[in-house]
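Hi P.,

Sorry for the delay on this. The queue was packed all week, but I finally got your sequence through. Input first:
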Amino acid sequence: MQSVPPSPGGQLLSEEQFQCSICLEVFVEPVSTPCGHSFCKACLQGYWDHSKKFLCPMCKKSFSKRPELSVNRVLAEISSQFQGLTMAGGSGTVTRGSTLNLSSDTAHGDSPKSVDTGEFAREGEVPCDACIGRKLKALKSCLNCPGSFCEAHLRHHKKVRSLTSHRLIQPTLHLEEKLCKKHERLLEAYCRTDHICICVACAEASHKSHDIVSTEREWKKKMANLGNRRSELKHLIKERAKKLEEIKQSIKVIKTSAQRELEESWQVYAELQRLVEQSQAELVELIATRQREAERQAQELARALENELSQLRRRSSELDAFVQTHDKVVFLQNLPTLSPPPEPTDWSAVSINTDLYLGTIRSSVSTLINRFQGELKRLYGKELRKLQNYSSEVFLDPATAQRNLVISDDGRQVKYEERKVSQSEGPKRFGPALFILGREGLSSGRHYWEVEVGRKTAWTLGVARATARRKGEIKLSPEGGYWCLWLKNGEVKALASARMPLMLSSQPSKVGIFLDYEGGQVSFYDVKARLHLYTFTDTFSESLYPIFSPCLSQEGKNSTPLLISSVKHS
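Then the structure:
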């Protein structure tokens, strides 16, 4: 650089005097170290962050701690003027290696008019790749380099490289990722056939027969699809969060229910224990009473026998003494003076029964069982009230009804008639067995329904597997896919692997049926008597259907229908 002669108006300074020795550019926010050297604030901070030591980049002077940095305002103002003049470019006023005339005003400390040095790149904006330290906002991006440049570096780029071979576009983030490696052109098209982004040259060369659209159009389409998926995902998240809250709430309810059940069990077993202790105390008292009474009677008999024995002994002594009289006259004279003998008592039929307690314990235990039955009945009633909370609407399915069965219009009653209903046969229909299924299959959860059987002399109720046999001979057992109770010949039986008679004091007039699918349980209840009848336990793997059979009319004795009644809480 040629020296510049002094000007009469002031001192001439070179641009190089206002360059940062780290980035070799005009100062941006110049700061000075304690040793007197100046650098761009961002450059010096970056240098220290990288080296992890506090050294002066020029003289290598070491500092014990990170010095506090303040911007040199005067130096920043002069640097700003140099940067502004350099960016003016074509005016020819000042270029690199130019000098700045400091007027007397500047020399005296008056600040000159600031020159716009360009905007610093903010978050989301494209920064200049050539700037060191704090980067300015890029003005253009070059496809051939590739890179993005602020106004000053773009001017330098134009000087160094020929514009005929370099193409400039609007500033673009991550430009290298958006360029075709083969043609060095922007990826402005999208091949839907190969699902890749391509440039226009690629589209014309190797994707002619493919479905090609602009990246803008594909982006809008994909964004729309993504928006829908996001909405669906948010909806799922909302639903799952709600379900999670329900589950967490259920855990709290389970804990509360468990505690309540424990407390109730303690009460129940305390009552049972009280009944046992009471029964035992009553038995002890009964045994003691019988013992006292038997001992009293035995003692009275013993006293009477002792009195008679004493009299007999006295008489025997008198006779022994009289026999000792050898004087015949005296014997005969004294004989009439003997007292008459006592009337003897017949003791042959008198006996003491020592087996006083025959049947005592059995009777006590029987009484205790009756008390237990009363407590059990109370528990059944409470259990039934809980089951009724799972009541489900059950309707009959005419498509499954045997042809002699007649269904009411509301689908809640079924009865047998001799005439066959004119209905087409199908794989779902029973025949010849007199059965009909419920309309809805049950494949999860808990369900409860009640059936009025009244005074019918025969019926069958329960659940059946969806794939259970419906034609010909049917095996009414869990192995055949049926879990049922029936009434026949005045006896209610559970149709397990072997027919199991239920010992009931009376026949039920209303039967409650409870299905716990996951729990593998089918239970039957006498609703009016509040008694548990029978429970099947099994594992279910397919849908189960409520099943009903009103059975034959038996010459009118069993003509009343089965009625699926509304559940009324007991």
